[in-house]
Amino acid sequence: MVMSLRDALRLADEMELDLIEISPKAVPPVCRIADYPKFLYQQKRKAKELKANPAKVVVKEIRFGPQTDDHDYNFKLKHAENFLKEGAKVKAYVFFRGRSIVFKEQGEILLLRFANDLEEFGKVEMMPKLDGKKMNMMLAPKGKKS
């Protein structure tokens, strides 16, 4: 309920509790009548709980060769689809061995096709990038629509 500061302080004093300002920038400011030490204890406990349960980010890797066959590609695509549905990130990479590095365009095309096929389950977090003998790409799961 809305009341003047003087009335709120008097009410809190009658209850032998404290008037705690919750949201000072709201119009009018939001306050609450509570036991201040207990309020601080609850705030610390909530912060500790949030800190103790951080979201664990799981990264699953899928490896391709520059000339991966269609059957192998589809097999790995289904695995990646399941990983994204479970909420894990997918790191897809093409590993070039020996002279196969000359097919780096083929590797990039393969990764872009992979991202395009998984478009409805995840979004590209990092575009294909050559890093030594590997061409990496990261996919993150799409947020749940409520």
Molecular structure report:
With 146 residues, the chain is an alpha+beta fold. It has four helices and six strands; from the N terminus they run αββαβαβαββ.
List the helices and strands and how they pair.
Layout: H1 5-14, E1 18-23, E2 30-34, H2 36-52, E3 59-64, H3 70-86, E4 89-95, H4 104-117, E5 122-131, E6 134-141
Parallel strand pairs: 3-4
Antiparallel strand pairs: 1-2, 4-6, 5-6
**Stretches with pLDDT under 50, minimum 5 residues:** none
- Molecular shape: rod-shaped
Strand content: 25-35%
Terminal Cα span: 32 Å
Number of helices: 4
Order of strands across the widest beta sheet? 3-4-6-5
Estimate the mean pLDDT confidence: 89
Helix content: 25-40%
Offer a quick outline of the entry.
The protein contains four helices and six strands. It has 146 residues and is α+β, with helices and mostly antiparallel strands.
Kindly list the characteristics that best describe this protein.
6 strands, 4 helices, 40% helix, alpha+beta, rod-shaped, single chain, two-stranded antiparallel sheet, four-stranded mixed sheet, 146 residues
